[in-house]
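pinging the channel bc i need a second pair of eyes. not urgent but kinda urgent?? the chain im working w is below, pasted from the shared doc
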Amino acid sequence: MSQTGRRIPISRPYITVEEIEAVVRVLKSGFLAQGSEVYAFEREFAEYIGVKHAVAVANGTAGLDLALKAVGIREGDEVITTPFTFIATANAILYQRAKPVFADIDPKTYNLDPNSVLEAITPRTRAIIVVHLYGQPAEMKAFREIADDYKLLLIEDCAQAHGATFMGRKVGGFGEVAVFSFYATKNMTTGEGGMIVTNDDKIAEKTRILRDQGQVAKYVHEELGYNYRMTNIQAAIGRVQLRRLEEMNNKRIENAHYLTSHLSGIKGIIPPYVDPRVKHVFHQYVIRVSGEFPLTRDKLAEKLREKDVDTAVHYPIPVHQQPLYRRLGYPQNICPNAIEASRRVLSLPVHPLLTREDLGYIINAIKELAGG
């Protein structure tokens, strides 16, 4: 057992009495489905990000699907994205019968590399989906310039980057449209849930119609829509979580800095690089385990698990090497930086409920395994 007498989890939702009371209030109201709580959450989230519109949906994947539909991605189009992400990013492109085109990552930040994106552009390219991986914003100045120069749509996958900033500006407002996830492990949660944000009135209106069975008025269905709505119960949790987001992010950042300050001297352990222009909100704290460490990445994870420290690998298989994408005929040797990262990265606990004792135990466990 750890010094705390319990297992240290890789993630844990930070739920307080305030969230519980908000849910109880909605349950007592009798209005459980999409309604006033959802609309209030949308207004508050749009204001927080600094955009005109926010459209709440059932989850982040639904948000990506609707965002791509709303901007007009369709069969035959190519959309450039990263293979080093959760598979939903690329699958949302497939939902449109469009073609995901994978560009490689920057080996320091693990985010999409603008130079690799430039090499992937063809006459059929319609859009770029940029993922702010682990909570670190991608190179948005370069991506905005590329999108403008080539007349491409820029879409942000902000599923892991609530409150992150690039050059002082929150992610979610750089592209034509962006999508956040509120899954249970995220920096803020509604259990399941997502939010589409945009400054474009037409995109906002289109996604609102599509999320609600294509309705433009009660029982008047103009489009082939979906049931992608968020409930008032979820939104009530989200409103409280949003008010607490900066506090929770600051705790993640504090935990990350503490880990880095104590792990940076261990041979073979490479702490996360932080671009000086960004606010990294550390959805994940990801080390790279190099060949200089006495254990492989997987062996280190196994040994830490034996010491009651949970870890995870985000992500062990690049998207283009997943069985589905193999069957679709994607070459397996593309994006070498993404492949190498998938063999080396390891996520350590960084969530806001960790104590200083927890962090010290994690650090000492790694030092012990390093032979120090």
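so The first strand starts at residue 53 and ends at 57. and The chain has two domains: 17-104+111-240, 245-369. — does that match what u expected or am i reading it wrong
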